[in-house]
């Protein structure tokens, strides 16, 4: 109950902050209504919930253990022959169930809502007119332009998307008015355009025309080309392994998605580590030391762990350390610190 209460309180505060932020970003856009702002904040909430859950477990566990200390239940249980481990194992089991339920059930729902939120954010707040889709059949890119839109399909990709092979481009003057089809063997992404080589152009008259070289205007760059793919948070725990395989076969980097998948796998253990840390700081308050001091110490450690986890994740994203180490090292180190501290407390 403590964990759930803390979680709901933090989520409510973050929801209000998101609403204010979306109102600020959409103040200059007449097409954005208050209802759409509230909807976007709701769609974003589940992805934030995954980051908030470890802190809710830490703060809720500290409140629960502090109550045990103040009510002298800890002294009574020790007198009855119970160890600290027997006291905290039920809490560990509860958060382990919560963490497993989150990644297996809540995460698929959260990924659908996050994908819808990102679509709304890109179209309403960022005014991004391009849409990319990667499938086992290749890369699909749809872009708006001044005269209509175009759809590009590439069957082979290399150099992180800068080089495409076996390309077909469909050009439309309006939503459904076909203008031309362009087939090319190779396309290279340059500043503001695709450089096409060995092309065949078929216009609305149906007569093919060969050309050695041509340009196709685009708003994409190498950076936003990869960023435009489905973000890891917009894909469920069950979909990520298959999509990682598709990315790697297509020639794109899947570091972000592998790191996110491993972090999901490690999240139940992270919640257990938070219980150990909460017990370490809260149960020490019984040793004639102010409980407020140990509570502040636990809160500081929680925020320190958050920043260190972000730092290690950044190293994983940059490729300096393997993704497995980046996802599991903070969890394992925190667990070992908690176990060691509790063993010391038990012997003290």
Give the percentage of residues in beta strands: 15-25%
Oligomer: single chain
Global geometry: elongated
Arithmetic mean pLDDT = 81
Notes on the structure:
With 348 residues, the chain is α+β, with helices and mostly antiparallel strands. It has two domains: 2-126 and 236-347, no CATH class; 131-227, no CATH class. Helix content is 60%, strand content 19%. A seven-stranded antiparallel β-sheet has the order 1-2-3-4-5-6-7, covered by helices on one side. A hairpin with a 4-residue loop joins strand 2 and strand 3. The longest helix has 42 residues, at 84-125. It is elongated. The mean pLDDT is 81.
Present the secondary structure layout.
Blueprint: H1 2-25, H2 34-70, H3 73-79, H4 84-125, E1 131-135, E2 138-144, E3 149-158, E4 163-172, E5 178-190, E6 193-203, E7 208-217, H5 222-227, H6 240-250, H7 255-283, H8 291-317, H9 323-347
Helix pairs in contact: 1-2, 2-4, 2-7, 2-8, 4-7, 7-8, 7-9, 8-9
Quick recap:
With 348 residues, the chain is α+β, with helices and mostly antiparallel strands.
